[in-house]
């Protein structure tokens, strides 16, 4: 579900014409719909087990206003860096609703998270476990820990967003789990109270999740039989969203919830979920202006003013994003839709049928709210894309476009050089 639709032949974001936002902000520009964020979070909350912590995955979209919108609804946060920790706290998400994942946590990051009194550390290696013990014990604190255990289950998604197989860098090997929980029990400053899994992203088949949660629940029972006090089960995120308007929709959160309930109903654990893409993907679009229609080759090129630095997913994952004209008019024509970045990978779509277009027309790249702006860069010295949040008839620029001077001010001259 999203809140971008046509009215009298014009694309709207909630009750605001997209063209009005472009006139105020320029292109390219990300536009997010508060109503979609709210609706998707509420659907997830309704499906989740009673009392579950829904820790929104900040890496999907870390804009402060997006985080504040979700915080007001009761969301927690799943973070993977100190920067994301600071963002979550600044947006009003309390430490007691924050879980810290990621394979490369540094001592300073662990210290910052301890200071924030976060709910849980999802520990991903023996080295991290020992370092966390050292940092926590040095501060006279006890760190609540769930070991992220790799269940060696293929999520049947894109190879670059699969995280639960034996070859993945994420988590500890299943065969090492019992030994590491025994180690954690003896380490000072560690309370190993949970089990954590996460097998991948954009999952559209629930069978791998079913198998992974079943294995995790079995591990909880095994650990308890060995004397460990396991009270939490973090099942990660990963539920997929529809990127193609005419594709079969992925399973609903309610279907996933039935599987989760079947494995946890008698387990007596606090369940933690880490949805990201599911909440924000369809809440965002990237709007771009056609710079040129370039003839030549098997199809004309539609050259946009947005590039792979603004939306990396097609170049990185060969990802599909539906594209719509903001004001569709004219017969359908097949285009290769590309950006201005000097890379052959700067392609949004090939052989895509779109209304016949000309320079100056506006195009909306859909389902761009997740892993869009957060992966943006200033490659080719292009400014980062501004972000706009809409609520009803209102819209606000929640990250402005930097000027070229501001971009250069981040750099300094080498001491042996002189400015021109």
Structural write-up:
The chain is of the alpha/beta class. It folds into 2 domains: 4-31 and 281-408, Lyase, Ornithine Decarboxylase, Chain A, domain 1 (Beta Barrel), CATH 2.40.37; 102-273, Alpha-Beta Barrel (TIM Barrel). It is 28% helix and 25% strand. It contains 12 helices and 21 strands. It has helices at residues 18-25, 34-47, 64-72, 82-90, 107-115, 126-138, 177-186, 206-225, 253-264, 277-280, 313-317, 404-408, and strands at 4-7, 10-13, 16-17, 29-33, 53-57, 76-79, 98-100, 120-123, 143-150, 172-173, 190-196, 232-234, 270-273, 284-294, 301-304, 323-325, 332-338, 347-355, 362-365, 387-391, 394-399. Strands 4, 14, 15, 16, 17, 18, 19, 20 and 21 form a 9-stranded mixed sheet that branches. An 8-stranded parallel barrel has the order 5-6-7-8-9-11-12-13, surrounded by 4 helices. Strands 1-2-3 form a 3-stranded antiparallel sheet. Helix 5 (107-115) links the parallel strand 7 (98-100) and strand 8 (120-123). Helix 5 packs across helix 6 and helix 8 (206-225) runs parallel beside helix 9 (253-264). The longest helix has 20 residues, at 206-225. It starts with a strand and ends in a 12-residue tail after the last helix.
Jot down its keywords:
alpha/beta, 420 residues, 9-stranded mixed β-sheet, 2 domains, 21 strands, Lyase, Ornithine Decarboxylase, Chain A, domain 1, TIM Barrel, 8-stranded parallel beta barrel, 25% strand, globular
